[in-house]
């Protein structure tokens, strides 16, 4: 936990060493999304047979180059857990938000450790109608479901926090992100390989990473420079 001391005005403030750590953790949270998206899109554009309109990014963990997406998921998870640790250090955000975001970060690591099964013709050579689900494929889906649920919950927890603080813009941004991410996840789950559902979920992924990055940058501005 961050060290808190009372200053001469009677307000709580974070000491310089704790502030440095918190700012570093928030910086890690800020780069998590852009890095994950950049690496995923680069692979999608260069991997043979990958189709953004049909394939979820998690399928990139398959094939001989699958280690890149596995690493991408693990790194994104660690950086997201760093954000959760930063939230825990902030005096007014140490409740459920860091726990929920921390679980989401852990779920990304688990999703990398337990890769999704090949499907819908990817990697190249996989039958379009492949339906076999392995043990690691089941664990991948379980990790995703738990992580996404926690992320959605975190968006509403933070939305309530910002609303109570009178930050209506951030409250709306947080709640809208959670609602749209839920809608995108439901759309994707309703039809594997469906173009509309897959693109809706991709848009939701981009939105939620943008929200987490913007949140990290916003909070970092309010941590004093040591």
Automatic annotation (TrEMBL):
Keywords from the named record: Membrane, Transmembrane, Transmembrane helix
Transmembrane region(s): 25-45, 65-84, 96-114, 134-158, 170-193, 199-219
InterPro entries: DUF998
Keyword Transcription: no
UniProt keyword Lyase, yes or no: no
Pfam families reported in the protein's UniProt record: DUF998
Protein name in UniProt: DUF998 domain-containing protein
